[in-house]
From TrEMBL:
Keywords: Hydrolase, Metal-binding, Purine metabolism, Zinc. The gene is allB. This is allantoinase. Pathway: Nitrogen metabolism; (S)-allantoin degradation; allantoate from (S)-allantoin: step 1/1. Its EC number is 3.5.2.5. GO terms for cellular component: cytoplasm. It is an enzyme of class 3 (hydrolase). Belongs to the metallo-dependent hydrolases superfamily. Allantoinase family. It holds the Pfam family Amidohydro_1. InterPro entries: Allantoinase (IPR017593), Amidohydro-rel (IPR006680), DHOase/Allantoinase_Hydrolase (IPR050138), Metal-dep_hydrolase_composite (IPR011059), Metal_Hydrolase (IPR032466). GO terms for biological process: allantoin catabolic process; purine nucleobase catabolic process. It comes from Streptomyces liangshanensis. Its cofactor is Zn(2+). One of its GO terms (molecular function) is allantoinase activity. Homotetramer.
Length: 449
């Protein structure tokens, strides 16, 4: 134990075995957890003691769904601002989506451009998803070898011209190629034909917008994905699941041994269609926030394990793009810094614990991406830790958040759970709202066994 440099102690540490009093011993040399010891273990000579008291120590959150938009659309967001928001919100690892930046991450050369932009700016550990678009099948293997964690595709228009969707035949070709080298395809699952058949009223009325993105579109796309995953024995993941009607399909496929997983997002779990004010397009995202009854079923899907991740889908833009017309406003919800308190506020109301939240927001996403060193407070993992005051509350002021533009659907909400500090590989990177200089690393698939 002579190399232990830090002991972080709390009466409530969220470990894989449950929440208990413990002392987390960290070694400076590799920034990893050396051991999770009994609460009253003596502090080794030379080591520093941080006593979190009754605040809860959780594994750092792993957010596998973030649109950083850098380079190219840096008026919307950027690596510095996004990762500051992440660190302040208890996220220690972030995976960037391949679209909305220019270039999109659709070739190995584009990946290098993005890595060079991110490297000096990132406050948390950052990795990248690649993109599967029409015509880039030949680029997928080189991207995978260059370190992306898997590939994202759309089945309906993405919202940006440089990242087109795949049709059914293109999906098959991409999935065949990716499965050939053991990769993962993550999918924006809305069926374009079902969307085209839906009424498109436009305007500021949320019910009209909701009708334009029906559950049927998600259900059909998930059905297609299950069929293709089964046919090719492929590994697929449903991004930002909103339609609770798709849960029985996914659960049945999982029981059959189809390799399909699903995530949902804080906004689907905490906001409802019934409460969106007219013209409030900060609530617009695709697929959309649905009814309260749908939300109840999503929580059930988390409780029974059909859904294993809760990730932000932070997809910001400038305030002017949030026009009051739901048809034309940019679709995306900014929530990077708020995911943990938003989910915890609703989870506690529904009788869940912070061990559940850690499983959904850290362990699950780490497993999805194959991040063996992240996602749990246990010996051998990186000392990525969050100290949370779970009963403290705050009211969301968009202007006080770290992400670039002061737009968020959570404005004015009072949330439970204040992040006191965030630790990345044994170094405190955020403390009571103050951030250090960027200390994050770029991470790649298979960085460690
Ligand atoms: Zn997204």
């Amino acid at each position: 134990m002579s190399e232990v440099s830090l002991v972080l102690r709390s009466t409530r540490v969220v470990t894989p075995e449950g929440i208990r009093p413990a002392s987390v011993a960290v070694t400076a040399a590799d920034g990893r957890i050396a051991a999770v010891l009994p609460y009253d273990t003596g502090v080794p000579p030379g080591a520093r003691l941080e006593d979190a008291g009754d605040d809860v120590v959780l594994p750092g959150l792993v957010d596998t769904h973030v649109h950083v938009n850098d380079p190219g659309r840096t008026a919307w967001e950027g690596f510095r601002t996004a990762t500051r928001a992440a660190a302040a919100g208890g996220i220690t690892t972030l995976l960037d989506m391949p679209l909305n930046s220019l270039p999109p991450t659709t070739t190995a050369a584009h990946l290098r451009v993005k890595q060079d932009v991110a490297r000096p700016r990132t406050h948390v550990d950052t990795g990248f998803w690649g993109g599967a678009i029409p015509g880039n099948v030949k680029d997928l293997r080189p991207l995978y070898d260059a370190g992306v964690f898997g590939f994202k595709c759309f089945l309906s228009p993405s919202g940006v011209d440089e990242f087109p969707e795949l049709d059914r035949e293109q999906l098959r070709r991409a999935l065949t190629e990716i499965t050939g080298f053991g990769g993962l395809l993550i999918v924006h699952a809305e069926d374009p034909h079902a969307l085209a058949a839906a009424p498109q009223r436009g305007g500021g009325d949320y019910a009209g917008f909701l009708a334009s993105r029906p559950r049927a579109a998600e259900n059909a796309a998930v059905g297609l994905l299950i069929a293709e995953a089964k046919r090719l024995d492929a590994r697929v993941h449903v991004l930002h699941l909103s339609s609770s009607d798709a849960l029985p399909l996914i659960a049945a496929a999982q029981r059959e041994g189809v390799r399909i997983t699903a995530e949902t997002c804080p906004h689907f779990l905490t906001l409802t269609a019934e409460e969106v004010p007219d013209g409030a397009t900060e609530f617009k995202c695709c697929p959309p926030i649905r009814e309260a009854a749908n939300q109840d079923a999503l929580w059930q899907g988390l409780a029974d394990g059909t859904i294993d991740c809760v990730v932000s889908d932070h997809s910001p833009c400038t305030t002017d793009l949030k026009t009051p017309d739901f048809a034309t406003a940019w679709g995306g919800i900014s929530s990077l810094q708020l995911g943990l308190p938003a989910v915890w506020t609703e989870a506690r109301r529904r009788g869940h614990t912070l061990a559940d939240v850690a499983r959904w927001m850290s362990t699950g996403p780490a497993a999805l991406a194959g991040l063996a060193g992240k996602g749990a407070v246990e010996a051998g993992r990186d000392a990525d830790l969050v100290v949370l005051a779970p009963d403290a509350t705050f009211t969301v002021d968009p202007a006080a958040l770290q992400h670039r533009n002061p737009v968020t659907a959570y404005a004015g909400r009072t949330l439970h759970g204040v992040v006191r500090s965030t630790w990345l590989r044994g170094t405190r990177i955020a403390h009571e709202g103050t951030l250090t200089e960027p200390a994050g690393r770029l991470i790649e698939r298979n960085d460690r066994p």
